[in-house]
Protein 1
Amino acid sequence: MSGRSVARRVLRWSYLFLAVVVTAGAAIGVVRLVAPATAGPTADPPGVRRQLSFLRAELDSGAGTAAQQLFPEGYFFLHTLYGLSWVELGQRAAEDDRETALREARWALDRLDSPAGREPFSPDLTPSYGVFYRGWANWLRGGVLSLQPDRSRDPAELARFTDDSVALGAAFDASASPYLPAYPGQAWPVDSTVAVASLRLHDALLPARFGGTVDRWLAGVRQRLDPGTGLLPHRVDAETGEPVEVARATSQSMLLRFLVDVDPAFAREQYLGFRDRFVPTPLGLGPAVREYPTGMSGPGDVDSGPLLLGVSLSATVVTLGTAQVHGDAALAGALANYGELAGVPVDTPWSKRYAFGAMPIGDAFLAWSKTARPWVSAPAAAPPESISGWWRLPLLTLLVLVGAAPWLPALLARRRRRPAPSRGGPPPSAEAPLPAKLLRSAGVLPSAEAPPPAEVRPSAEVLPPGGGARPSGGPPGSGEQLVQGDR
């Protein structure tokens, strides 16, 4: 076999292998786009426990320290989201089946209480270490208590939760602004919303004592909404609480998840306003979340990440959980399926990771979003749907075209080689199965055409009367002859 023949054979088989890979990838994409990717606020979300297995291994290998290099609260957030995801899985389980969830949530909480967990925050703020640190830590601590039976809660955890709640309540009562600082001279409404939700959680787990604090907070918030959108602003003046930056999706998507446990009716108003202004379908290829309201653009930052067509990937992931706690199953399901397609998940029987596991903080946000559920308020009624059930059609069409594209040259070549049928000719012979025909048309298998069989003529041996041989030299046809085969 010549070198050129070998090279052609290698190229043909390589093309076939690539075609199979592309088609299989498109088929997997179709499955990910239509199979349920979340389970609402009551059932176990598919794949999340395996995702948490991956995250625990990464945290044990130093992923928290690596995340700290990416943004100021990386270590804190990665451990917090891991712990909260386990709390919400535990809340779905029976009381006698919460051991793993409780152990892992406590493990995460211990890391928040460590010097590494407090390192970015100032002890000189009121409350100490600021509302970001105290609010999220108090919410997780209350979640740990929620997994324990009422009569057997850990006394030390209960006392710490009570003390931290009292410190937060006193700070809100003493502040002229509803928004406490997270860092010296800087305040974001989302951080105070988390802290106030933890006070509501206190009153749900223990005798109520913060109702007046929460009511005053809500009144102050309603007086300081972003005038352009009617939503809570992204950033405010640390002294007065007046808006200094328009509402943005990175904070809206998160604070609306907690606001539902503070005041469900106010949260529904805010959620619908957010959904109308921030959730488009870029290029008609499915829902996503803009960082800035429709009609406005701006730069990305460390929280939003790079903005593609104005879309923030981090806000899109967090909005999945926000939609779920607001009963918006249509939007939550659409965002989850979109994430399964675009997030390039690597799924094994033991673990699951997205984007090949390159960004564990992204996996943490996605796991936390899929486990989302209200902690204090009752499950919300479904709002009017904002997304059609046909949103998948453009993506499904695109996937089908991608999957079929590698085979089109073979199909066209086969069509060109097929001879035109002749009128009155014999019926066509039985054809090979379609896969074999495609491979032969592409040149991978040799042609099945064989040379026509040699024509077989009937024997015309002439026998003289009586069956003897024809006399030598006698002219054919002389005398009476019998031609074999004439009878």
Note: The chain has 18 helices and eight strands.
Protein 2
Amino acid sequence: MQKSLFTTYALFSKWLFIALFLVASNALFTDIIIAISPNKPIKYSLFFLHFCIGVYSLYNLMQLHLTVSQLIKHLHNKSA
């Protein structure tokens, strides 16, 4: 059970890093998208792709947070 907790926590840490990276580099990605897109449909498609990647990483982050908290709660109840 503890090995499962550590594995899930490692995944949680990875997705937390990805989400924080996306939030921190949002302005940079926006500037790059504006600079490289030749027309509006491509620009808005890239913005949508950037948005979807952010939502996906936050979804994974929340799922792993719930899993880790449930495993911790289970281990706490088991030891008490």
Note: Helices lie at 2-24, 26-36, 40-79.
Protein 3
Amino acid sequence: MSTRAQMLATLRDIQSKPSTPGRERAAANIQAALARMDAYAANQKSGGGFARAITFHDRETLKLLVDDPSRCTEVRDRAKRLLDGNGELTRGDVRFLDAVHGDDR
């Protein structure tokens, strides 16, 4: 399980229990950390030269990212750009996919 998946599991666990000030702070901290992780991944350069063609799995992963409301706007926008692109992924794009959706791989 990746760090993101562990954080999401912890967040769901916290949210499933009765609300206390400590749990609310913990949930807010986890949500902020997830947003920072997404923003960091989305702002990485997409350059680095051609890495490979986009695969069916990449396309499905990008569609999931676009439709995931828990992701920040930057991640969803970059996923949309990749879906609308020329079908090629740069090394930076591959790193982006690995960073934001590595928990399912």
Note: The helical segments are 3-16, 21-42, 56-67, 73-83, 91-101.
